[in-house]
Amino acid sequence: MQTLCHADVANIQYRPTNVTYFYGHSPARRSHCVNGNTENKIERGKAMTNSTRIDFIYLSEQDMIRAGVTDMSACVDTMEEMFGLLYRGDYRMAGANNDSHGAMVTFPENSPFPTMPKPTADRRLMAMPAYLGGSFCTAGVKWYGSNIANREKGLPRSILMFTLSDANTGAPLAHMSANLLSAYRTGAVPGVGARHLARKDSRVIGLLGPGVMGKTSVSAFIAVCPQIDTIKVKGRGQHSLDNFITWVQTTYPQIKHINVVDTLEAVVRDSDIVTYCSSGEVGTPESYPLVKREWVKPGAFLAMPALCNIDAGMEQSDVRKVLDNTRLYQAWFEEVPKPAHKTIPVIGVRFMDMIAEGKLTTEQLEDIGKIVAGDAPGRQCDDEIIIMSVGGMPVEDVAWGTVIYRNALAKDIGVKLNLWETPVLS
Q1: pTM (two decimals)
Q2: How far is CA 157 from CA 122, 146, 240, 367, in A?
Q3: Which residues pair with 320 in a beta bridge?
Q4: What are phi and psi of 368, to 5 degrees?
Q5: Residue 117 pLDDT level (bands cut at 50, 70, 90)
Q6: Distances in whole angstroms, Cα of residue 33 to Cα of each of 15, 182, 400, 414
Q7: Could you give the CA distance from residue 107 to residue 117 in angstroms, rounded to a whole number?
Q8: Is the pLDDT of residue 368 over 80?
Q9: Omega prior to 253 cis, within 30 of 0
Q10: Which pLDDT value is given to residue 15?
């Protein structure tokens, strides 16, 4: 059996019927291979693997759905595999330490140029590049445009695109709509945490923020904790709550109880799994949604992918503190003014501030990749409280984007585009 690299597959000028793309846990399935006598079959198909021609595919949002981007169980499995690679070091992201979240364009409060965007809440123009090895061996970059005022135009807050590339040549493999890609990989990461850190008999989710991130996090929790039957939810407006309730009733009929609550305490108290998924103003940690120790039941798992702060009780050493990638938070801490939690509102950055303040040691922080790899324990007893920070990383986009790209090729989904037959400049 011979394995073709991504550039070979992208440049083959026919679609052989014996090409298969797989994803999953089994090492035997973590490849995309041309089986049998490859040379003879390619010759009969007149493939031009040495051609200078470069083709790639474009995947719209509907194409992404047909290729499986909303398959949360598969996405959780893919994120788990990705975390194993992070732990082994088979990846690269931006920055001097290869762990940066990305590069963001910032805007001044006052500009002499009237058309320059203002630094409003959730205003982001950001490039998030990464390489991921293992069974993926691809590179990619997500372009992240965000403006909370988009909602006034009927648009989502963030509009995202992702380009997947051959890691050797840099040639494009796919250019794809990335709102669903990003949403599902973001939700899947708390799902990986819940798989290893939540109680197996978890039944109640406490959710702050019933938007996109809230929905995908709930999807992931249900995928890994099938006994869940109750959701408590707090939202800002009735429209978003009604939308969420309708979505849950349609998608997960096994959920017996959906309770709308009015306070953070009600979200947290008596919940087996807690997640804060709301957006908001950054800059004043005292205004971030708070978790008080007295609210948290023994055995709770808290996954925090958005704004969050904790009280002194939650800072204590008997609360396990897990990060999705310790080096990501160290990179963030180096990149921004201190205290860093003022600029980056995820709770893992507060942990970095606590280290600087002498309240916490690096050794007291745990990494989900080490837990996934089996080199550190998951949940150790029914009563321990565990909080996990979810920062979001471009390697997650590369992982899930690669799976969706391979699915699309296998199912002949998407629009084939040509970059060039022969480059004019070479």
Answers
A1: 0.87
A2: 8, 6, 14, 30
A3: 386
A4: -65, -30
A5: very high
A6: 13, 27, 19, 21
A7: 7
A8: yes
A9: no
A10: 32
Strand partners, 94: 100
- Alpha-carbon torsion 243, 248, 249, 255, what sign? negative
Which two structure tokens, joined as six digits, stand for 156? Answer: 């989502």
CA angle 147, 152, 153 (to 5 degrees): 90
SS3 assignment for the chain: CECCCHHHHHHCCCCCCCEEECCCCCHHHCCEEECCCHHHHHHHHCCCCCCCCEEEEEECHHHHHHCCCCCHHHHHHHHHHHHHHHHHCCEEEECCCCCECCEEECCCCCCCCCCCCCCCCCCEEEEEEEEECCCCCEEEEEEEEECHHHHHHCCCCEEEEEEEEECCCCCEEEEEECHHHHHHHHHHHHHHHHHHHCCCCCCEEEEECCCHHHHHHHHHHHHHCCCCCEEEEECCCHHHHHHHHHHHHHHCCCCCEEEECCCHHHHHCCCCEEEECCCCCCCCHHHCCEECHHHCCCCCEEEECCCCEECHHHHCCCCEEEECCHHHHHHHHHHCCCCHHHCCCCHHHHHHHHHHCCCCCHHHEEEHHHHHCCCCCCCCCCCCCEEEECCCCHHHHHHHHHHHHHHHHHHCCCEEEEEECCCCCC
pLDDT at residue 414, as a whole number: 98
What distance in Å separates the CA atoms of residue 117 and residue 148, rounded to the nearest whole number? 12
CB 172 within 8 A of CB 154: no
| Cα–Cα nearest to 337, from 353, 324, 326 | 353
Residues 6+ apart with CB under 8 A from 170: 139
